Every structure is written in C-alpha cells, then in structure tokens.
C-alpha cells in the first residue's frame, strides 16, 4: 500500500502527469513522470513528496486481474519512491500483457522505464555507443 501522502487522486494531477510529463514505454506498462516544479531551496516553501497513480483498463483483464496488477504495481512503486524527485507526479499505465505477467516481469519493466525517465539511460543509446540496427560504415562507405 502506498502511504496517503504519496497517492495521486485528483483527475487534474493525472492529466498533468500524462500531458506535461515525460513518457517511457515498455512491453507491459507505460510510465509518465512529471518532475516537481517547486524549488526545494526557496524560503518558506513546502516541498511535496513524490505522488503516484495507476491506470489499469479493462483491456488488462477482469476485475480480479486488474486489482492484482494494481496491487503489484503499488508494491513495486512504494519501494522506488525515494529515488523519485520531490514533488514529482508518476502515472503508471498497465498494458494488456500485464495481466498475464508475473511480479518479476513487471519489476523489470518498471525499473527500465524509471531509469530512462530519470536520465540514467538516454533514449536510443546502445552500450557500445552506436545504434545496433545501423552497421558501421568503413572508409569506402560500405558496411564492414
């Protein structure tokens, strides 16, 4: 269960995270992150904690399956809240495959999406420094 201060409840907050935040898609879920807009160093300003909300549609499955997916996602995100910037809004939208997936698969997809949104893995980067789909060109212009 998420603590009360970390729950996203208002429709406007969901809309802000989805429309104005950054998005990272994975096979089982899509994560929207809107970083905190308040300055934590401003005098007299209260910094709100990171808040999270979940969207699990009927495409994921019946009510039992949807509730199971929401419980798993809440549990996973609760452990990752300290890594999020203060004042940020997070919306996790489950995709249809999330109903058949296990806890570890959801955890891997959530971690990968959050890493990308928090700037640890830039989009389109490959560990070798190049794009794996585009072969390196030699001096003659042909693929080696």
Distance between the termini: 54 Å
SS-based class: alpha+beta
**β-strand number:** 4
Overall pLDDT metric: 83
Shape: globular
User: Segments where pLDDT lies below 50 for 5+ residues?
Assistant: 39-43, 126-134
Strand count, sense and closure of the main sheet? Answer: 4 strands, mixed
| Helicity range | 25-40%
CATH class: Alpha Beta
What's the oligomerization state? single chain
H-E string: HEEEHEH
**What strand order characterises the main sheet?**
1-2-4-3
> Helical stretch count?
3
Tally of discrete structural domains: 1
Predict the CATH topology: Ribosomal Protein S5, domain 2
Tags for this model:
144 residues; alpha+beta; Ribosomal Protein S5, domain 2; four-stranded mixed beta sheet; 3 helices; 30% helix; globular
Outline the secondary-structure elements.
Elements: H1 11-20, E1 22-25, E2 29-34, E3 51-56, H2 63-80, E4 89-94, H3 103-117
Parallel strand pairs: 3-4
Antiparallel strand pairs: 1-2, 2-4
Task: Characterize the structure shown.
It is built from 3 helices and 4 strands. It is an alpha+beta fold and 144 residues long. The chain has a 4-stranded mixed beta sheet with strand order 1-2-4-3, sandwiched between helices. Helix 2 packs across helix 3. The chain is globular. The model is unreliable at 39-43 and 126-134 (pLDDT under 50).
Q: What's the quick description here?
A:
The chain is built from three helices and four strands; from the N terminus they run H-E-E-E-H-E-H. The protein is an alpha+beta fold and 144 residues long. It has a single domain, classed as Ribosomal Protein S5, domain 2 (2-Layer Sandwich), CATH 3.30.230.
